[in-house]
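Our consortium's second objective concerns turning raw sequence data into structural hypotheses that experimental partners can test. To show how far this objective has progressed, the report includes one record in full. It was chosen at random from the queue rather than selected for favorable results. The single chain below, 378 residues long, was entered without modification.
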Amino acid sequence: MSMAGNLRKVGNLRKVGGLRRVARVAQFVRKHSRVDLSHPARSPLGSAVVKCVTYRGGVRQEDGRDLVEEVERVRKSGDGFVWLGLHEPTEQEFAGIADLFDLHPLAVEDAVHAHQRPKVERYDETLFAVFKTVCYVEHAELTATSEVVDTGEIMVFVGKEFVITVRHGRHGSLGPLREELESAPEQLAKGPAAVLHALADHVVDDYLVVTDAVQADIDQVEMDVFSKDGERADPGRIYQLKRELLELKRAVVPLGRPLQILATQPMQAVAPEIQAYFRDVDDHLKRVTEQVASFDELLNSILQAHLAQVTVAQNEDMRKITAWAAVIAVPTMICGLYGMNFDYMPELRWKYGYGLVIGVIATICFSLYRGFRRNGWL
């Protein structure tokens, strides 16, 4: 589409009521640019627009224009780009923005409804990427119902003169990332692809933080299982860790292919010099993937060890019960023998018969006890 066609389209879209509301909200947010808009990341006006900033030469512009005017100005000059940040927009809130930036309907649907796998898709000159964000949930003590990993999503639209980030979830605020990029204007001057790389790097760095925290939980469970009373450890904690690890795995593993695409396949939205940075992010992701796989194997081993400990403890109990049953069987047998109602039995009329029987019972029981004790059964 020609530049003149873009400008005519922008002029027509300014007449749309929904787009005007988006523009007014974006202008309000720019005037309050230092406000912390982390979750619930809605602007004071209740809109999904969290931040709208224009960058030229890697430098943030503070000129107070609304969204449509900023886009028009960037398209006219061919310099800089607009970074629009949203949090959980509705279809109505996103409709005007989709028209303004000519976003593909399928990508718009994914961005609004979320619950997508990590992926990268190309729609003409626009790149659409989905990242799963993760956050470690702090807990005083790990239980069978503890939440360990919380996940969210970040969708990114990257075009020639814009970046649109759509965030879903209770965490993953991009305010600190934006400030970090603004402190490095030489990187931000490389365009929207630099923002996409920074987002991917930010997400993968969070993966590393979460895996380190999960490692501490696994170490604690492992210590409890192999402690003196390890057979009494709650196996529900191990199963809970495996469930939470599965949620982390669903966020980490599918991102491998999209990062490889960004790092190797040529595309208009990503310059070759930026692709080298994506290769570094891919290396970090492979490290996380290997850690998650090793955690899964380690938890399986811990669970098997715990089940083996329980079996050994049960066998110990059964041996003790069996040994005492053998000891008790001796007096039961002898007393049962002399309890029979026969008129003629040995020692029935003998003066020392009672003492002799008691002595025999005590001797046999003591011998059995000593033998079981020596063999470790008691």
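The partners drew two points from this record. Residues 1-46 have pLDDT under 50 and may be disordered. Residues 369 and 375 are 10 Å apart (CA to CA). Both points have been shared with the crystallography group to help prioritize constructs.
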